[in-house]
Design goal:
Order of helices and strands: EHEHEHEEH
Oligomer: single chain
Helix content: 40-55%
Number of strands: 5
Strand order of the largest sheet: 2-1-3-4-5
Structural class: alpha/beta
CATH topology: Rossmann fold
């Protein structure tokens, strides 16, 4: 499963990408500026943090909607869910519950995408 990890904090980006790679995921880790141009049809999912500098999440969502509107996008929160995070075009996971919720969702996506990727 190919994941674009978009995170502006270098330590978070490095740690999460290393963790996901140990779990067998192929990860392209970028900042928002790089990430908005990295969304393409070769990806299976996009993961982003919500608390990036505004309007970075909005730019990333807009890029995903333009380039690959069906691409699953998961936004992680490490603070209480803000009202403006109630979007219907992204999935929000509370990182305070631990990385297990993110891994479970990625495994579900992988299971859903595996038959589609096998036909390509």
């Amino acid at each position: 499963m190919d994941i674009l990890l978009v995170e502006d904090d270098a330590q978070v980006r490095g740690g999460l990408s290393a963790f996901l790679r140990t779990r067998g995921y192929r990860v392209r880790a970028t900042t928002t500026n790089e990430g908005v141009n990295s969304i393409d049809g070769t990806l299976d999912a996009v993961i982003s943090g919500y608390r990036m500098k505004p309007p970075n999440v909005e730019r990333l969502v807009a890029s995903r909607n333009e380039r690959a509107p069906l691409l699953p996008m998961i936004v992680t929160l490490s603070t209480p869910r803000p009202e403006d995070a109630s979007r219907t075009d992204v999935e929000v996971i509370d990182a305070r519950d631990g990385v297990g919720h993110l891994l479970k969702r990625l495994q579900e996506l992988d299971t859903q995408l595996r038959p589609l990727n096998a036909t390509e």
